[in-house]
Amino acid sequence: MKKILVTGSLGQIGSELVTHMRKIYGDSNVIATDIKVPENNEVVNGGPFEALDVLDANKMAEVAKKHNVDTIIHLAALLSAVAEAKPVLAWQINMGGLFNALEVARELNCKFFTPSSIGAFGCDTPKDNTPQDTIQRPGTMYGVTKVSGELLCDYYFKKFGVDTRGVRFPGLISYVAPPGGGTTDYAVDIYYKALQEGKYTSFIGEGTYMDMMYMPDALNAIVTLLEADPSKLKHRNAFNITAMSFEPSQIAEEIKKHIPEFKMSYDVDPIRQAIADSWPNSIDCTAAREEWGFNAKYDLPSMSKDMLDKLKIKLQIK
Ligand code: AKB
């Protein structure tokens, strides 16, 4: 990978991935793009940046050619809760953007990464230790776009030889950029509210297990998979990966170890709860471990400590 184009660079993953990859591959070799162009932003100012709407296929091809890219990381997408509220827009952005990005990858012979999600599973999928290859009949528009995206990426690999690779991300937790519109967002919000207000009202009910991962492990997974020897990859789109599985009261208990007065209550949002109920409790990531050495460093205690330490600095809380 010599020149990497990233779409959706100012989203939750992109905000950290661009900086992470610029450190590894050089500032000038990671071309960040996003529909928004904020001022005073590390991603915008720290290397090449282009304004790009992923639905503009011509502009995407033009930007990729201008920078002579050999790798595309396509992150621009709507998350599950927003996609459920705006299903037509979700189909247009999640599928239209992916199709445009795959077409550029095909034309320029680029390596390609796009994330899938635990949202690609549905109520018929085995809930515990969900296998890599299993039933995928999601009941949400987000899930429909994620399964379709996995299939489309496989198609571009088989039909056109595009080197497509992907993971099914669990909920991602980070202190840098907020997720915005996901079902797993409670597991980010809770740390902010614990520090700012000493209490949190969860929109996901007690006992609802979902897979999660701390952002440093997610960034590492993207780079490791993109660097993996293709001859070892039996799967491509997309690998199950996870670092931990917990339910809301367990994260609350972990936070209490650092903030003993922390109080948790529940006001369940039926829409996001229904989405969470259709997702696995925990997924099996053996294929990712075996085929490209996936390994997560952070568990719930180590992630919670780091999140609270970093957020205290960010929020200037003593
Ligand atoms: C969401 O909640 O929509 C995402 C995801 C698990 O894909 N965080």
UniProtKB/TrEMBL annotation:
- What range(s) does the NAD-dependent epimerase/dehydratase domain occupy? 4-241
Q: Tell me the Gene Ontology biological-process terms attached to this UniProt entry.
A: L-threonine catabolic process
Q: Which InterPro entries match?
A: Epimerase_deHydtase, NAD(P)-bd_dom_sf, NAD(P)_epim/dehydratase
Which Gene Ontology molecular function entries are recorded, alphabetically? L-threonine 3-dehydrogenase activity
Pfam families, A to Z? Epimerase
**Cross-referenced Gene3D superfamilies:** NAD(P)-binding Rossmann-like Domain (3.40.50.720)
- Give the top-rank taxon of the lineage listed in the UniProt record for this protein: Bacteria
Query: Which family is this protein grouped under?
Result: Belongs to the NAD(P)-dependent epimerase/dehydratase family.
Q: Which protein, by its recorded name, is this?
A: L-threonine 3-dehydrogenase
Task: State the organism of origin.
Answer: Clostridium amylolyticum
